[in-house]
Design brief:
Layout: E1 2-7, H1 12-27, E2 30-38, H2 44-49, H3 52-77, E3 82-87, H4 90-100, E4 105-109, H5 122-131, E5 136-139
Parallel strand pairs: 1-2, 1-4, 2-3, 4-5
Helix pairs in contact: 1-3, 4-5
């Protein structure tokens, strides 16, 4: 069984990566992990006003919004998957998760929503490439 990691952010490029993952999943026996990653909020001001539970709730809610387009495409295509919202330095967290799940391949968009939302960027894609020793399929 092949294991694919699909980091998404809700962007158009991310949706194209999902479409490519769907094709691969339909071609063979694949275990698909779909994740979205948020950088941790490190501002002391934010942490002064919000509890750890409130921050986790925020990550979960925003993460589900980012995962929603991918989940809709995968559900419509009848592809099974596991999804998760992760928090950490984006590229390193993707690389660590790929290692943890023993992924054979990472499929990701080349550009995402931008730094304001803290999602996938061209620079994140480049960093992921430098951090992993497995194939990375980049989708424009």
């Amino acid at each position: 069984m092949r294991t694919i990691l699909l980091p998404v952010d809700g962007s158009e490029n991310s949706s194209r990566a999902v479409q490519r993952a769907i094709k691969l999943c339909k071609e063979g026996d694949v275990k698909l992990h779909v994740v979205t990653v948020f950088p941790p909020i490190v501002s002391g001001n934010v942490k002064s006003f919000f509890s750890a539970e409130e921050l986790q709730s925020y990550y979960r809610e925003e993460g589900e919004k980012a995962l929603s387009p991918a989940k809709a495409l995968l559900d419509t295509a009848g592809v099974s998957y596991e999804s998760e919202v992760l928090v950490g330095p984006i590229a390193q967290t993707i690389a660590d998760y790929a290692n943890k799940k023993q992924a054979d391949t990472i499929i990701m968009g080349t550009r995402g929503l931008g730094t304001v939302t803290g999602m996938l960027l061209g620079s994140v894609t480049t960093k992921v490439l430098s951090l992993v020793d497995i194939p990375v399929l980049l989708v424009k």
